[in-house]
Amino acid sequence: MTDPVSESIPAVPVAPDPRDRVIIFDTTMRDGEQSPGASMSHDEKLELAKILEDMKVDVIEAGFPIASNGDFEAVRAISGIVTESVVCGLARAGMADIDRCAEAIKKAKRGRIHTFLSTSPSHRDHILHASQEDILEMITKSVTHARNLCGDVEWSAQDATRTEQDFLRRCVDAAIRAGATTINLPDTVGYSYPSEYAEMFRDVIENVDKADTVIFSTHCHNDLGLAVANSLSGLQGGARQVECAVNGIGERAGNAALEEIVMALKVRGDHLRFHTGIETQHITRASRYVSAITGFPVQFNKAIVGKNAFAHESGIHQDGMLKDRGTYEIMQPEDVGQGGSNLVMGKHSGRHAFREKLKDLGYELGANALNEAFQRFKDLADKKKHVFDDDIIALVDDALASSADKVQVKHLRVIAGTEGPQEAFLTVTIDGEEKSANATGDGPVDAVFNAIHAVVPHQAILRLFQVHAVTEGTDAQAQVSVRLEDDGRIATGTAADTDTLTASAKAYVNALNNLFARKEKSAPGKVASGF
Ligand code: KIV
Ligand code: ZN
Fold first, then answer.
1. Which residues contact ligand 1 via a Cβ below 6 A?
2. Nearest CA to ligand 1 atom 8
C-alpha cells in the first residue's frame, strides 16, 4: 500500500552526516605496485598522483620509502606536487624505516606516516619471533617515534583478522595511547568474510578506551573475492576509511577496487548511508592509466571500468534500454567518465576544440605537452576516419609517457608476410642523434625487437608483450604494453599507433627508457652506455 501523505509531500533532501564521510585512501602506488610485474616509473607515479588528486582521493599512499631509492624519490616528489590530498609513506616498526619515511614526506603540505606491525600468532611466531609483550612494546615505541616526527600517524595491525581478538584490542589500545590518529585493521591474507570483519571493528571500537578519538580503516585483500564486500562491511562495523587500489591491483589477488567501493557507496546511498568526496567522472581515466602503465589488462566484464560494464547485447536488454535506461542500468557511464557518445573529432578540429576535449577527459596539459598532443592528434586524424575519446586518451597518455625519453623511434619499415625472413629497418634518435640498424626475425615483431637490440644493445629480457585494440574496426589504434626485466629491475613501456608494429617498437623503446631511468636513479652517473 502506498502512503498518500508521503506521496504528496516532496522529499526534503537530507544533508549528509559528516560522521558518515568515508576517507578514500589509495594504495595503488604502494600495495598495488607490490603486484608481481606491476612496476611504475617515477614519472608515471607523478602523473598518477595528479590523476588521483583530480579525483579528490583523500589519502595517496605513494610508496614504501625504505624499500628502494626509487620509492623514496617517488614519495618525495609526490609530496612536492600534491597540495590537497594527504601524502602517505609506509614504514615498518623500525626507527630507520620511520625516519626514512618522515624524510620522504617532509615537503608534503599534509603528510602521513603509516607504520605497521604484524599481530597474528602466525606472524609473531614465524616471522617476528616475538611474544605478545614484545609486540606491544614495539607498537608503543614505533608509534611514539612516528608521532614525534609527524602529527598524522596511521598504525596497521598486519594480519589483524587472524589475530586473537583480546590481543588485537590491547594492540589498538597501545597504538592509540602512543598517539596514532588512524588505526587500520587489515585482512592481509583475504581470509575474512563480511559479518566477521564488521564484528571485529565493532568489538574493538566498543571496548578500547578512546577509540572514538581515532579513525578506523579497512584494508582488504581479495584472495576469496571478498575484498570489496568486506570493506563495505567494515564501514558498517564503524570504520570510516577504506584502503583500496585502482583496478583492485595489489599483492596476490589484489586489494579492494577503488572504483567498486566508491560506486557502491554512491549508487546504494539509500542503503549504505556513507558518502565519499570522490569526483567519480575521473574513474575511467585512472583505470585506463593504471592498466596502461602496469600492462595489467582490465577484464572485459570488470565492474565499473570493464569494456562491457555498460554494454547491452541481448535484444531484450537493448529494447528496454531504448525505452528507459533505468531498465537495465543502475548508473550512467558518464558518472564514471565513460563518454556516452564518444565519437569526437576529425582532421578539421582545431586546437581550441582539442583543448576543450582534453579538459572534458580530465587532462590539463602545459603548452608544450598540448602542442605535442595536438600534433599527434592531427597525424592520427589523417590516418583514421573517426577519432574517438579512447583514441585521444591513448594518444595523450602515450605522449606523456614518452616525451622525456632518451631514445625515440624515428622511422620503421618492416617486411612481413608468408615468405620469410621478416625484416625490420629501424632508425631511432638517442639524445637527438640518429642511429639505424636492420635485423631479421622469426616474425615481424621479433624482427623489430632484434633491430632495437642492434641499435640499442642491452641485456634486458622480454617478460610481457601485449596488444589491445583501443577502439573497434580495422583502423583502430593498437595499444601495446611491453615489460622488460634486467638484473631484477622491471619496467613497463606502452605506446599506441594505428600500425601495430610501430606501436610495438615504441612500447619496447619506452620500456627500455624506463629501465634506464631506474638504473640511473639507483646508480646515478654510472650507467655509461645508457643500457
Ligand atoms: O595487507 C596488509 O596488511 C598491508 C599492510 C602493510 C597495511 O598491506
Ligand atoms: Zn595489503
1. 31, 116, 156, 158, 184, 186, 188, 219, 221
2. 31
The pTM (predicted TM-score) of the whole model is 0.84
Same domain, 59 and 175: yes
In angstroms, rounded to a whole number, what is the distance separating the alpha carbons of residues 229 and 445? Answer: 43
Cell of 482: 611491453
- How many whole angstroms from 310 Cα to the centroid of ligand 1? 33
Pick 320 or 84 by higher pLDDT: 84
Q: Which atom of ligand 1 is nearest to the CA of 243?
A: 7
CB atoms within 10 A of CB 290: 27
CA distances from 496 to 96, 254, 268 (A): 43, 27, 37
Choose one of 355, 378, 401: the last residue of a domain.
401
Question: What's the rounded Cα separation, in Å, for the pair 144 and 121?
Answer: 24
Q: Which mutation among 59, 158, 168 tests ligand 1's pocket best, with the greatest number of atoms within 8 A of CB?
A: 158
C-alpha 136 to ligand 2 mean position (Å): 21
In a domain, 111, yes or no: yes
Domain of 410 in residue numbering reads as 404-521
- Asked if the structure places residue 314 within a domain, the reply is no
Same domain flag for 348 and 263: no
Looking at the structure, tell me whether residues 171 and 260 fall in a common domain: yes
**pLDDT confidence bin for 386, thresholds 50/70/90:** confident
Q: Are residues 372 and 456 in the same domain?
A: no
The string of pLDDT tens digits covering residues 441-458 is 999 999 999 999 999 999
Asked whether residue 527 carries a pLDDT value surpassing 50, the answer given is no
- Is the Cα torsion angle 283, 466, 516, 444 positive or negative in sign? negative
d(CA 37, CA 485): 9
Nearest CA to 466 out of 313, 298, 280 is that of 298
The pLDDT value recorded for residue 10 is 56
How many H-runs (helices) and E-runs (strands) does the chain carry?
17, 16
Predicted local distance difference test score (pLDDT) of residue 292: 86
Asked if residue 303 is part of any domain, the answer here is no
Residues with CB under 5 A from ligand 2 (ion): 31
- Amino acid letter at 108? A
Whether 115 and 154 have beta carbons less than 8 Å apart is answered as: yes
For residue 428, the domain's CATH number is: 3.30.160.270
The pLDDT tens digits for 217-265 are 999 999 999 999 999 999 999 999 999 999 999 999 999 999 999 999 9
Higher pLDDT, 34 or 1: 34
